[in-house]
Amino acid sequence: xxxxxxxxxxxxxxxxxxxxxxxxxxxxxxxxxxxxxxxxxxxxxxxxxxxxxxxxxxxxxxxxxxxxxxxxxxxxxxxxxxxxxxxxxxxxxxxxxxxxxxxxxxxxxxxxxxxxxxxxxxxxxxxxxxxxxxxxxxxxxxxxxxxxxxxxxxxxxxxxxxxxxxxxxxxxxxxxxxxxxxxxxxxxxxxxxxxxxxxxxxxxxxxxxxxxxxxxxxxxxxxxxxxxxxxxxxxxxxxxxxxxxxxxxxxxxxxxxxxxxxxxxxxxxxxxxxxxxxxxxxxxxxxxxxxxxxxxxxxxxxxxxxxxxxxxxxxxxxxxxxxxxxxxxxxxxxxxxxxxxxxxxxxxxxxxxxxxxxxxxxxxxxxxxxxxxxxxxxxxxxxxxxxxxxxxxxxxxxxxxxxxxxxxxxxxxxx
Length: 415
Ligand SMILES: *Cc1c(COP(=O)(O)O)cnc(C)c1O
What we know:
The protein is an alpha/beta fold.
């Protein structure tokens, strides 16, 4: 028998996080993570921090929903909680226009499947009560599509991604909310990639009763800390009436640790699970940062910097098919078409963390989460341009960098 060798200390390199997410965790967030004491999950400072996080989250989401808090984990943890109200046999219509809404649809089919349907294909159940409306990659879900499907199926729940990160498309949240109200469906929204990036207030969409996001995209907190969620009183009443087969991800039970008991705010929370002082401290700082800068201001900043990146890659001959403001999804120009994966792998090998699409067709995704400075955009453009040049693309980098000068200093350029 060979003796077990303990590995060396793990070293993880610094990368330029220029993909769909995780974004660049803010230095302020990392500093608070490292500065937190080892206080336990019932320490008054931790409980107070959680209450303040809950209050800040209501500001960030733009809501008066009492049931607004963070679910320990990642985006899927928040989404799993949001879908807990879906029970076997429930009628659901869900719209899928990319990788993530496709997984949301799988999650919904798993929850709505009958016992027989689950046993027949447990990892990919075909639930007869769930209608998945497939929208082609690269297209947005429109209000008309939602209206038509809800009129036809009259489901208990309707679900959609707000911004589909797989294809970089913004879906019509207003049309979705209107159709849900009109047809009496409870709307559920995957807002994993829009919260903290787009300028929206969830209370403006009364047809939507459940919302779920993540820590590491627009909120620029550490991954695996807290996924923001928000539920209307109607959602909570329905959940209470019908139940949900989970302790861990039960919205009413998990909310207790955040100081929400019997539908009301209380001074401090009661035990649900062992929260981490580090996680609370860092998440708290991420929310402070978002509110200090302002949701509207951050959204405007994303628009401004994304426009610069989009123009630069267009000058390289790339065809941009996305309309999100934190992410550019593109096809390489004709002579490089089909070599998207090769380019992404070469970039990633140099710790330039761009991404391919995860479902067909293969495209390149370049993100700017928390990269909201001219210097950061210039570095992304230079590194992407270098990758294209290395593959033989004929691009005029000086002209492209000059166009960035014009974008960032229009007054100077006009002189
Ligand atoms: C990133 C993402 C997810 C998954 O989030 P995790 O934090 O990886 O669990 C789900 N939905 C959308 C729209 C996303 O962008």
